[in-house]
Design brief:
The protein is built from 13 helices and ten strands. It is of the alpha/beta class. The protein has an eight-stranded parallel beta sheet with strand order 3-4-5-6-7-8-9-10. Strand 8, helix 9 and strand 9 form a beta-alpha-beta unit. The longest helix has 15 residues. The radius of gyration is 19 Å and the shape is globular. 46% of the residues are buried.
């Protein structure tokens, strides 16, 4: 069984072949090359279950003068069948640079654009004029008359910002709206909001070593018909530190996982409430590796317990 490093070396070694046919590496007679998709409950629109996040390393590279790697990673995602790209004005230059790249590559219409409204931090009050101005900036950057999804970032002033998003949805300028948070102190308020408001989406963190969402958030999302974007499926960098130097178990092949990235992503994807996962990366080879988590078999409950036991048996770094 290959480790992530071995898989990436093989991918780089086959770069010439992939350039000619980027889908060739995934061809299989048994249909494993087909991406797993999930339906958005409010409309039935289906999304590939693994996409791309514009935070972390993507955002870091977006601040640099050379964004060649980001052109490559966005192009590779689309080549491999992915569509979901999640960003935010608060991710530095991520939204602006990604919008420009997508338009240059001619892939803007193929992407499911998810961005955020974040003029107010948790506990502060949003200026409605500033919120509307930020939204108009996002429209200009993305270059589409209709943005697929805009969410209130980290539960900031919901009373002010969520109604503004509803106005945009009613006017047909945004297709879906929602709220996000990845902070422990916000989870109870997120649950309360999910119960009280008709949301299309939520975004939250969820990983094999951070399973809080399984307790209430994900079951409630399924009951209420709310789509879920998952952030930080690798525990930010916790999981990479934990498995560094550890071989992937042979039995990972039972869920068609050939790398730790796919192992972690398949755990998250196995929850039926998860609509799409958006790990951030600025490397095309990592994008291809991550996309492998959206192919083949997913773990059942017995396998998930086995996966958890394995991860927990490895001492945290």
């Amino acid at each position: 069984m290959m480790t992530r490093r071995e898989w990436l070396c093989r991918t780089l070694g086959a770069a010439g072949a992939l350039a000619l046919d980027p889908r060739a590496a995934w061809a299989a007679e048994d249909g494993k090359s087909k991406l797993i998709t999930r339906a958005i409950p409010s409309t039935g629109q289906r999304l590939p279950i693994v996409g791309l996040g514009g935070s972390a390393t993507f955002s870091q590279v977006a601040r640099s003068q050379d964004v060649t790697a980001l052109r490559a990673v966005l192009g590779r995602m689309v080549e491999l069948g992915g569509t979901v790209f999640d960003t935010a004005p608060g991710y530095g230059a991520s939204e602006e640079v990604a919008g420009r790249i997508a338009q240059d590559l001619g892939i803007a219409k193929q992407l499911f654009w998810a961005t955020k409204l974040n003029v107010a931090r948790w506990g502060s009050t949003a200026d409605p004029a500033a919120a509307r101005a930020q939204l108009e900036t996002s429209f200009r950057r993305i270059g589409k008359p209709v943005i697929d999804l805009i969410q209130v970032h980290n539960m900031g002033d919901i009373r002010t910002q969520l109604p503004i998003l509803r106005e945009l949805k009613e006017k047909g300028r945004v297709r879906y709206i929602g709220v996000t948070t990845t902070f422990d102190g916000h989870y109870a308020d997120l649950v309360q909001l999910m119960r009280a408001e008709p949301l299309d989406f939520i975004g939250t963190d969820y990983a094999i070593d951070e399973r809080h969402a399984e307790e209430t958030i994900l079951p409630l999302a399924r009951d209420k018909g709310i789509a879920v974007l998952v952030y930080a499926p690798f525990g930010r960098r916790r999981l990479w530190s934990r498995v560094r130097g550890q071989p992937l178990p042979d039995w990972a092949g039972e869920i068609d996982a050939t790398s730790w990235a796919q192992f972690f992503l398949k755990y998250v994807a196995s929850h039926p409430a998860v609509t799409a996962i958006t790990p951030a990366t600025s490397r095309p080879a990592h994008m291809a590796d991550n996309t492998g988590g959206a192919r083949g078999r997913l773990p059942d409950e017995t396998m998930k317990k086995r996966m958890i036991e394995l991860v927990e048996s490895i001492p945290a770094a």
